[in-house]
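Summary for the lay section of the report: proteins are chains of building blocks that fold into shapes. Here we show the chain for Peroxiredoxin and then a coded description of the shape we predicted for it.
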Amino acid sequence: MTNPLVIDWSTLPVPQDDGAARHLEGLRLPDLALTSTSGEAVHLSELAGRVVIYAYPWKKRPEDPLIDGWLATPGAPGCTPQSCAFRDHAQALSEAGVSYLFGLSTQASAYQREAVARLHLPYPLLSDEHLRLTRALRLPTFEAAGMTLLKRLAMIVNHGVIETVFYPVFPPDRNAAEVLAWLVAHPNDS
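The coded shape description reads as follows.
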């Protein structure tokens, strides 16, 4: 995998729907703040309008080795293509009524800031390194290299309530287009 944006998805295991995200639709986001790569604390429950939050497991730096078994873990590879697809669809998502767009992982904000700069992301990443949101919402996770990582998903939140969830997400580079298509088909009436 020399170019992280060029992946033959047919060679990777497809994640199956294990039901771990079925409980999320209709839940209100908890009143807690997450650190953003912009340096601000983001209170997700207080954000007005539609918010798109996509969760990804682990974004590696170019110089870092892959986690052992990463390519064999269903749904694990693809964090960079997913983030870049949301980057490339950011304007269209805004035009479809999205007020805020965030990526979410359990990595530290300092680690995430490198990815925002390297990938030229026009939106912030949120750090849940202490697993507060993950535990409060019971987000699907898996363990790798001693870390608790989020399984890939995307949520559309409307005035603090989870409106719909995309899970499992595969292939990751198509997630932003799927989210956009849903938003276009379900315009916000509020």
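Put simply, here is one thing we learned. The chain has a mean pLDDT of 95.
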